Amino acid sequence: MKFYNNVLELIGRTPLVRVNHITRQHKIKATILAKMESLNPGYSVKDRIGVSMIDWAEREGVLKKGGTIIEATSGNTGIGLALTAAVRGYKCIFVLTDKVSIEKNRYLKALGADVVVCPAAAKPGTPDHYVETAKRIAHETPSSFYPDQYNHPANPAAHYATTGPEIWEATDGRITHFVAGIGTGGTISGTGRYLKEKNPAIKVIGADPYGSIFKTYKESGRVPEPLPYLVEGIGQSLPVGNADMKAIDEVINVSDRDSFEYARQLSRREGIFCGGSTGTNFAAALKVAETLDENAVVVFIVCDTGEHYLTKFHSDEWLKEKLLLEPQRITASLIAETKNGSSPAELVFVRPDETVSEALAKMNGHGVTQLPVIEEGRSVGSVRESGLLTKLLADRGLLEAKVGDIMDKSFPVVEMDTSLNEIKSKLQRNPAVLIEDFKRITGIITRADVLDLPG
Ligand SMILES: Cc1ncc(COP(=O)(O)O)c(C=O)c1O
User: Fold this and answer.
1) pLDDT tens for each residue of 192-237
2) Which residues lie across from 82 on neighbouring strands?
3) Which CATH class is domain 47-145?
4) What is the pTM of this model?
5) pLDDT tens track for 198-210
6) b vs e for 352-374, b when ≥16 Cβ sit within 10 Å of the residue's Cβ?
7) Which residue, among 254, 234, 252, has the nearest Cα to 243 in the 3D structure?
8) Ligand 1 atom at shortest distance from the alpha carbon of 275
9) What is the pLDDT of residues 251-261, one digit of tens each?
10) How confident is the model at residue 141 (pLDDT cuts 50, 70, 90)?
11) Which of 118, 232, 312, 434 has the most CB atoms less than 10 A away?
12) CA of 330 to the centre of ligand 1 (A)
């Protein structure tokens, strides 16, 4: 029989996969390889340190049968710890910030962990900060182990012992550049140290979100004022113990927009379904590779799976809300679906045989100033509050007139996939456009609905 004794034996030995279409499009001569950490049993690079930190605690006698593991995490370390805890019978409490995706939060609970959520805006060192909260809970919980992934030596040690050798062997020692994000710094420091020992000419490059401190810190030793960004799991507002800046040659900043765009491209065009920090790494890898020749081999880390972010940047609705979707990808159906929060709005309209007074009551009731006139799913005209009131001033008797007898021409009709630019141009000459799907009018877009959209 061929089987593994438990899921922990599946951790590591992840493959390298070449990126093809995107590198060709960018005229890259170097080979760019993705280290598929998303194929670990907990779908991230952090499975490796979940086991290594718990192994350490068991060896040192810090964690005993029935003990509780408590950690501050952006989710993936929690998942790695929870996998090991499930197999070995420990309890877990994880402290996240409210920036962490709901998928990771629920995943942790599904693995049996308790989850506490803190505000991402809390400053380091203040009682509400997620790290301080985890420390406090650990202090108050008997038989607890607080790994502290930001400082625990078993974190970079796991990558020194496994990730580094795997990359070295899989590339036959031909790797020239290694690119990874810096969260705790464990991946980049441990892997980077191993690779540089093998060949000091290998360049280790940190991919860092704009707003994080690492680029300025590496280049000047100064810690700048951090700014918020949306990518999860990487970047810091203060230096951390496991981010060994000596193991890193260069830090490249990447915007949220590029991180998400490249994560989506890796998924769509290469089938490498990944999270936002992978997009950050890949954007930096492309930048590095621009000037390299065909002898160069650039390896970047695929930190985790895109499944953790299906309600975030892998959804057009979320990107649109964050003003991160390119204008050409914002379509009529997306605008209509997302205009009133997340629930698709019901179309309000009048029929031609309704009276002017009924039309005015509808406008009033729904807080709108115009209505399409619809008959059997088709648009036959339109009415506007201002126009009706002007006509009523001249002849009050029109209140009982039929809408069909006094209506103006129909608003323009567009298809579901009509672009934002075309819709905006129509809205310059008309107060609203209607959306048609399978020959029926299903939605309306007014000027107010596109005001805040880019383009
Ligand atoms: C999604 C994601 N990417 C990257 C990282 C960074 O890895 P490291 O902490 O080893 O620097 C993390 C760490 O939490 C993460 O959750």
Assistant:
1) 999 999 999 999 999 999 999 999 999 999 999 999 999 999 999 9
2) none
3) alpha beta
4) 0.82
5) 999 999 999 999 9
6) eebebebbbebbeeeebbbbbbb
7) 234
8) 1
9) 999 999 999 99
10) very high
11) 232
12) 31
Protein residues whose CB sits closer than 6 Å to any atom of ligand 1: 46, 74, 76-77, 181-188, 232-234, 275, 277, 303-304
Q: To test ligand 1's pocket by mutation, which of 35, 44, 155, 314 has the most ligand atoms within 8 angstroms of CB?
A: 44
Q: Which residue minimizes the CA distance to atom 12 of ligand 1? A: 233
> Residue holding tokens 């950690």?
71
Pairing of strands 432-437, 370-375: unpaired
CATH superfamily, domain at 328-450: CBS-domain (3.10.580.10)
Question: Catalytic: 46?
Answer: yes
Query: Ligand 1 centroid vs 365 CA: distance in angstroms?
Result: 50
Two domains, one topology: 7-43+159-316 and 47-145: yes
7-43+159-316, which class in CATH? alpha beta
Domain boundaries, given as residue ranges, for the chain? 7-43+159-316, 47-145, 328-450
pLDDT at 342 over 50: no
pLDDT at 230: 94
Query: What is the pLDDT averaged over residues 166-190?
Result: 98
Alpha-carbon distances, residue 240 vs 195, 208, 236, 237, 412 (angstroms): 21, 14, 8, 9, 57
